[in-house]
């Protein structure tokens, strides 16, 4: 079953495969399995050092390139103008694609300069090498600055979001500007099994805590990119994100959790 639902004006597929840590033949196999079971959005990054693995997984899948939404991220040391262009060309070669659906600024640090970095992203988009521009790990003021410099609209903001770490003000910015909030580490890297309120909601629905975490994020309007290796986890995440519906009380209960864990502080 294909994933048809999308988020934001750019139409980012609502369920994607996170690939951080997928490596080697087994990692490529996970990517192929995910695509063949219906995932259409694949998320990687230069810093994961697995773009070739992800590319092999994409190439082996029996799904045409134009049906896929392939996203990668330019790491913090490649954000000078020429380095954006060169490293993106390398990323595309490793991924085996002639264009990217979404290219993110991974973090606004180090060589990031809004004027020159984002000019390079605009250039890539004008040349047709990328379809959409995204940002990741930005704060509200950094989103404003990016909008002031970009010709392209921001299509997606990838941010840490799970029951133990939320940024409601950033979700509101996404809603106000009609771009996709993409929740990374949507299972809190596996920690959702230890969160009592998530476990309780899961028991009520005869579901797993992982499924509930994904359903809660979808209810909040986020796209989700859970990482999984086994076919069993890939399939259960895909199904949960598309079909499990929480009621308002469930969502409120998870919203009310006392937050304690940011997994990826700067
Ligand atoms: N933009 C950024 O700065 C940034 C930072 C971090 C992550 N990300 C992106 O977000 C993606 C996801 O985040 P993440 O990798 O940190 O963690 P995550 O998706 O929250 O959790 C992944 C962990 O949960 C396990 N898992 C997955 N599905 C499961 C299921 N149904 N039942 C039980 N366990 C399950 C996985 O194990 P198995 O592999 O064994 O299935 C893995 O250990 C990354 O892969 C990456 O693409 C982006």
TrEMBL record:
The keyword Oxidoreductase applies. This is 2,5-diketo-D-gluconate reductase B. Keywords: NADP, Oxidoreductase. GO terms for molecular function: oxidoreductase activity, acting on the CH-OH group of donors, NAD or NADP as acceptor. It comes from the Archaea. The keyword Ribonucleoprotein does not apply. Residues 15-258 form the NADP-dependent oxidoreductase domain. PROSITE patterns: ALDOKETO_REDUCTASE_1, ALDOKETO_REDUCTASE_2.
């Amino acid at each position: 079953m294909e994933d048809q639902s999308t988020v934001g004006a750019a139409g980012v597929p609502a369920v994607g495969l996170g690939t951080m840590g997928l490596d080697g033949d087994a990692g490529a196999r996970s990517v192929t399995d995910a695509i063949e079971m219906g995932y259409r959005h694949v998320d990687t990054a230069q810093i994961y050092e697995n773009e070739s693995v992800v590319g092999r997984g994409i190439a082996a899948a029996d799904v045409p390139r134009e049906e896929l939404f392939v996203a990668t991220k330019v790491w913090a040391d490649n954000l000078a103008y020429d380095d954006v262009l060169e490293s993106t060309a390398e990323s595309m070669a490793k991924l085996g694609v002639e264009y990217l659906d979404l290219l993110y600024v991974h973090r606004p640090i180090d060589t990031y300069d809004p004027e020159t970095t984002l000019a390079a992203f605009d250039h890539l988009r004008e040349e047709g090498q990328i379809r959409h521009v995204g940002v990741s790990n930005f704060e509200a003021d950094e989103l404003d600055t990016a909008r002031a410099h970009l010709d392209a609209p921001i299509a997606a903001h990838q941010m840490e979001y799970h029951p133990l770490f939320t940024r409601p003000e950033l979700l509101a910015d996404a809603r106000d500007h009609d771009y996709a909030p993409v929740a990374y580490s949507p299972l809190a890297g596996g920690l959702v099994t230890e969160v009592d309120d998530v476990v309780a909601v899961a028991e009520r629905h005869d579901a797993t805590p992982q499924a509930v975490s994904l359903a809660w994020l979808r209810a909040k309007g986020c796209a989700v990119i859970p990482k999984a290796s086994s076919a069993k986890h890939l399939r259960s995440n895909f199904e949960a994100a598309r079909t499990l519906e929480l009621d308002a009380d469930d969502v409120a209960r998870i919203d009310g959790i006392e937050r304690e864990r940011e997994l990826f502080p700067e």
